[in-house]
Structures are given as C-alpha cells and as structure tokens.
C-alpha cells in the first residue's frame, strides 16, 4: 500500500480529499490527517509517508515552516487556494500543485504523475538526472594560469569586497568569476549550504558549531577563515539543522 499523509486545516476538505484519493487509487491508504504545522513537524520527525498532500495556509502558520524543521524526503502535492505560492512550492519536493476546489480529473492527473515518477526505473533515472546536472568542477584563473578545481577539493565559497573566492581543503584561497548565487544554483545542495550572505559551505568544512545566544549559531570552519566570526543567518537556522541531518 502507498501511505498517504494529508495536511489540511479544513476538516471537511481533508475528509473529501481522503475519499477522492482512495476512490481513484485503491493502493493508496490515507494513514493520517493533520491540521497544523506543529503537528506535522511532530509526525514527520518520526515517520515519513510515501506521499503528502499539503495545504499551504495551515491553522498555525504557513506550511513552508515544516521544511525548515524536518527533512521531508517524499514527494509532495500542494493543495491550496493560493496560486501565488506555486514557485516557492516547486522549490521543495513538490511534484504538482492543485488549486481548490479540486476536481476528480485534476486529482487523478496528479496521482498518475506521482505513480509515473516513482515507478522504477523512472524514479531512479529522475534521481540520476538530478544529480548529474550539478557542477563537478570550476575553472579558476590565477594570473596567466588556469586551474581546474574539483568540487570534492572545495571546503567553502565566500564573498569579500564584492568578489567571490573559493577556499580549498588545503586552505588555499582562489578567486572565482561567479557570484555566490550562481554557484549555489549550480552545485549539489546536499553537499553545500548558504549559511548567510557571505558563506556557502560544505558539510565537511564544519569543525565546530555552537549557540552563543538563543538564536545565534556560530560556526568554526576548517580550514579556518580567520578572526571573523561566522554565524548562520537567524532565518536559516532551522533549515540548516535539517540539512545537517540529511
């Protein structure tokens, strides 16, 4: 059976959606219906279903807060009355975006899409394609010389005086002709995280991390960056902690 979780704060809509899902696809079993971000975080911290139907505006917060607190690895189909959140939804694990009121036809298309994406070998191919699109190396120019730098040899990227640099695992710092935003878009997000406006770090570069106050999380990098204190942006702390647990 395909385990389905519905996260929806309107009880009647959730009940109707459950009935529609199970009538369209008998192999799908709605294991739980949840109506808040808090309850969703608690549930997903212990168990991950095969598929989530997720409303955006829940009873206590917007659903995106869930993804900052827990690592949701299963596909998500958003179910909402708000079309303006579509772009943000597809930045997550979303495979489709349904607008309320939901029709049988649109729901069936979403379920068929889920089945086609997760059918082996389609799902395996999709994951391989996603991994292969990430950059594996950078070409660095130093004076008149060119050097090819493997992504595996990079500890972190940083910006300084409107310029971008890469710090290698051996501590060597080299200039790059890319913005941090462009680099962030082209490298594997499983391996690197943008902790603040200045630093994009690999998971292996973290030597120490600790709270200096309730909301301020400090990081010590290896190779050491120097005397400057490096903090995770407050709004990214939850997402950063989730990234570390993947």
TrEMBL record:
Q: Is Phosphoprotein among the key words of this record?
A: yes
Name its species. Flavobacterium cyanobacteriorum
| Record-annotated Response regulatory domain positions | 3-115
User: Keyword Transferase, does the record have it?
Assistant: no
Which GO terms label this protein's molecular function in UniProt? DNA binding; phosphorelay response regulator activity
What is the top-level taxon of the source organism?
Bacteria
Q: What InterPro entries does this protein map onto?
A: 2C-system_Tx_regulators, CheY-like_superfamily, LytTR_DNA-bd_dom, Sig_transdc_resp-reg_receiver
Which intervals hold domain HTH LytTR-type? 138-208
Q: Which keywords has UniProt assigned to this entry?
A: Phosphoprotein
Pfam families hit by this protein: LytTR, Response_reg
Q: What is this protein called?
A: DNA-binding response regulator
Q: Which SUPFAM superfamilies match?
A: CheY-like
Q: Which residues carry this modification: 4-aspartylphosphate?
A: 55
